[in-house]
Structures are given as structure tokens and as C-alpha cells.
Amino acid sequence: MTVSTAVPDETTNPEPRLGRSWHIVLPLLCYLAVGAAMIIYTQSVPLDGIERGSLNLPYIFGRTWEHIQLVFYSTVLVLVVALPLGILLTRGTLRRATPFVLTLVNVGQATPAVGLVVLLAVLFQIGFWTSVAALFAYSLLPTLRNTMVGLQQVDWRLIDAGRGIGMSAARVLFKVELPMAAPVILSGIRTTLVLSVGTASIAAFIGAGGLGDLITTGVSTQRNLVLVTGCVLIAVLALMIDWVGGLAQRVLAPKGLS
Amino acid sequence: MTLWEYVEDRWDLILFETAQHASMVAQCVLVAALLGVLIGVATYRRPRLASLATASSGVLFTVPSLAMLGLLIPALGLGVAPSVTAIVLYALLPIIRNTVVGLQGVDQLVVDAARGIGMSRQRSLTRIELPLAWPVILTGIRVSTQLAMGIGAVAAYVSGPGLGEQIFSGLARLGGANAVNSTLTGTIGVAVLALLFDGCFVLLGKLTRPEGPLSRRLTTGGVRG
After folding, report:
1. Structural domain count of chain A
2. Is residue A257 domain-resident?
3. What is the pLDDT of residue A6?
4. Nearest-CA neighbor of B24 among B84, B69, B66?
5. Which of A163, B33, B63, B116 is the most buried (most CB within 10 A)?
6. B 22-51 residues with CB below 8 A of A?
7. Where are the bilayer-spanning segments (chain B) (predicted)?
8. What are phi and psi of A9, to 5 degrees?
9. Do residue B191 and residue A205 have CB atoms under 8 angstroms apart?
10. CA dihedral B64, B70, B72, B78 (to 10 degrees)
11. What number is the ipTM of this complex?
12. Is residue A226 less than 8 Å (CB to CB) from chain B?
């Protein structure tokens, strides 16, 4: 299952430099404005005791920071594991295992995120690092899959040509294969990021903190304002991280491929 | 109690929840497929509208499902209503996008030829363009189904029906007897259901592709070049 959230907007005519850069930051400004409006609103309406406990600024920023940490740690782990593993699984004799691994990845993606999170909690313990492990296991798959698929679809004639002009296998990997596969790999990493923001909100069920705490508090105490604030902030965070992923895709992809 | 004993002991309940999950997903995807193809058909000839539809679905798509479910609680309360609404909303997005992409990908020459031999716009759409775009649309529906399976599990948090209840009752009994069994049953159940549905889509895709057995019989009477 390839879930791409890319918005097809790169095909438009090249615009003047200033106009173009404005177009890029416009969504980010919108997301920031929505998030800020939500926080300002919660600070300006009268709150009861329970609401004050969850809707004060230090609490909100603390939970946001926890959420970002959950996403950050799990994504770094994914990058450290999935990229070398994906490269390794497309080399030499291991290449024959590629279809098998891809099938396994597809089966893994059929597992519901909430099931995985709760399962790790009942098997081990609740808490931050269990959640990071669950996030890692769940969001590993898109990056691993796209690394393998991206490397697989590099034209073999280009690899032959690289070898033919005397490049070593490692040099071909770094100078030809990885740059050619970069767009696919980067879109996998972007999917990983967005998936882990969503899974991190589920991780509030197992005591990981994060903005999901506002949702569980809001539901269990029937305070809709707390609930809605949590939901809006999670949505804004996801959109902002997706935006950063989109920016990385543009900046890091080798020029002149598309 | 082993997992097997647990499943045997609660076989009726688990079977019921599995059936609920499957029927919820199937109905939601059916509604989403109808709506999504309609929206796709309505917008694909207007580039502005089409990119608006795909861009806004992209934004909605990025919003995590738990946040979407939470936002629906104040409006719809707990239970079936927010679960079904959220699933349909998420399931719409891949279908709209793939319908637009699939229809726009149909060779313009083929469409012109269809119009040239006197087909009306509707007829060209239903006889030529939609069948040619069908594999892409079907892929969208397939992705939607997988999504719906996972969101259906989260929906148990807002008291939605289905196998998610097993997962959340495992969470509620954390550390107690059967917590692991219950969670495993829910998780594996949803995964197996998702793979079963996916298998059906692979089969359906093979049967209904433009040059496949079903549509060949319907359209060209088996004449092949």
C-alpha cells in the first residue's frame, strides 16, 4: 500500500523566485495560524477546573514537545535501520529475497497501528520507550519498502554503464543508484513521518504522553474543548510535519531527474 | 489460557465482531466508492476543480485518524455515527484521486475516436473512459479498504463496532488475565481480514481489467488483435 500525500503542484510553469517561495511557505503559515488561533481561543474563554488543568500553555507545549520527541526518535531509528537494510536486501544474493521481504512488509502493513501499540504495552510495559518501539515498528515499513522499490527500479543499463566506466560497486551505489532512487526513498520517509505523528497520538493510550493525552482527557472527562484542542493541534502538527517532508523531498532530491 | 483456548472460548463473540468489522468496512468503502467516483467524474475535465479536489483530500488525508474521530465526537456523539463518517471520509480520498488520475490518463485519441463514431459524452464516459480507467480506480478502492480496516480498529475508542473492541478490552485489562490474548485476537483478526479483502481485490482486478475475461465478453465479443 503506497500512501502518497503529495499535492501535484510542481508541474506548473516556473514562476518568479519570490512568488514561488511564497507559494511554498503559504501552507505552513496557514497551519501555524490555525494552531495559534486554537491556542489563543482556549486562553481567552472561561475554563472550569478540569479544563484549566489541560489547557494551560505549559501543559500544551509540554505535550506538543513530547509528541515531536516521539516522532523524532522513532523516525531517526527508522532511518538508521531501514536505509542500510533496504540497501543490503537489494545487493548480490540477497536480491532473491526481495519479493519475499516486500510481501512480508505488505502483510505487516495490514496490521492495525492501534493493535501493535496496545500489544507492545500488554507484552512489555506502558511508557515512552515502548511507544517509540511501536512507532518504529509500524513506520519502518514505508521507508524500507520504498528504499527497496526505489533501488530495484533503477535502470540496470545505468548500473552497467557505471561499472563499465570503471566505478566500483560501492561507487555505483552512491553515485548512481541512490541518487536515482532518492525521490522514491524520500517519499517513503515522508510517509513514515506522517504515519508516526498519527501513531504517536494513539500512543497516549499507553502512557506515552503527547497531544493524544488531550484527546483521552477530553473524552474521559467529557470536556469537548479539551478534546477538540487536542485534535486540532495533532492535525496541525501532522500537516506541518508533512510540509517539512515535502520540502525535504524538493530540496534533497537530485536536480534534473524529473 | 492460551490464545487458542481464548479464541475457542469466545468464538461466538469474536466471529460476531469480525463480521461487524467486515460489514462496516465493506459498506463504508462501497459508499465511498460511489461518492468518490462521482466526485472524480464531476471534476476530472476541469483541471482547477480536479486539483482542488485532490489537494483538499491530500490535506484531510494527512490528519491522523484519532484526531478526525475526536473532532467528530462533539458533532455526532459516540458510537457508529462518528466511526462510519470518519471511515468514509478517509476512504474517499484515494478513490477520488485515482478516479481523476485514471480518467485523465485515458488517451485523448481514444476519446476523440469514440466521439467521432457518434458516441455521446455520457456514452463515451461509461463505455470507453471508465472501463479504461477502472484498474486505477480499483487500486484506489483497494488502498481505501486497507485504510478503512485500520481506522475501523481505532474507531472502537469512540465505541464503534468491530474487532477494535478486542484490542481496547486488552488495554483495559492491562496486566490482567487474557490482556495479551484479547489484544492479539483483535490485531491478528484485523490483519487477516485486511489480507482477505486484499486478496479479493486482486482477484476482482484480474477479472475486470479492460482486457480481462469478464469485460472482454461484455464489450468486444472476444475479438483480439
Report:
1. 1
2. no
3. 37
4. B84
5. B63
6. 51
7. 20-42, 49-67, 73-93, 132-159, 179-204
8. -130, 0
9. no
10. 130
11. 0.78
12. no
CATH number of A73's domain: 1.10.3720.10
- Residue A63 falls within a domain, yes or no? yes
Contact between A114 and B195 using a beta-carbon 8 Å cutoff:
no
Positive or negative: CA dihedral B161, B32, B99, A234: negative
pLDDT at B215: 55
Identify which of A8, A111, A235 has the shortest CB distance to residue B63.
Answer: A235
pLDDT of residue A15: 40
Residue A16: the pLDDT is 42
Q: Which residue range forms the structural domain that includes residue A24?
A: 17-252
Give the residue from B219, B205, B211, B40 showing the smallest Cα distance to B127.
Answer: B219
- Give every CB contact of residue B189 below 8 A, 6+ residues apart in sequence: B14, B17, B18, B21, B163, B166
pLDDT digits (tens, 9 = 90+) for A149-178: 888 888 889 888 988 999 888 888 888 888
Residue A92 confidence (pLDDT) above 70: yes
Please report residues of B whose CB lies closer than 8 A to that of A239.
Answer: 59, 62-63
Residue of A nearest to B74 (CA): A224
Alpha-carbon distance A67 to A64, whole Å? Answer: 5
Averaged pLDDT, groups of 10, chain B, 225 residues long: 80 88 92 93 86 81 84 85 90 89 87 89 87 89 89 86 86 80 88 90 83 53 38
Contact A118 B170 (CB under 8 A): yes
Distance of alpha carbon A151 from the chain centroid: 20
Q: What tens digit of pLDDT does each residue of A62-72 get? A: 888 999 999 99
Q: Are A203 and A247 in contact (CB under 8 A)?
A: no
Residues of B in contact with A224 (CB under 8 A): 73-74
pLDDT for res A10: 39
| Domains of chain B as residue ranges with CATH | 3-219 (1.10.3720.10)
- Give a three-class secondary structure readout of chain A: CCCCCCCCCCCCCCCCHHHHHHHHHHHHHHHHHHHHHHHHHHHHCCCCHHHHHHCCHHHHHHHHHHHHHHHHHHHHHHHHHHHHHHHHCCCHHHHHHHHHHHHHHHHHHCCCHHHHHHHHHHHCCCCHHHHHHHHHHHHHHHHHHHHHHHHHCCCHHHHHHHHHCCCCHHHHHHHHHHHHHHHHHHHHHHHHHHHHHHHHHHHHHHCCCCCHHHHHHHHHCCCHHHHHHHHHHHHHHHHHHHHHHHHHHHHHCCCCCC
Output the nine-digit C-alpha cell for A100. 519475499
Assess contact for B209 and B27: CB atoms under 8 A.
Answer: no
**Whole-structure pTM value:** 0.81
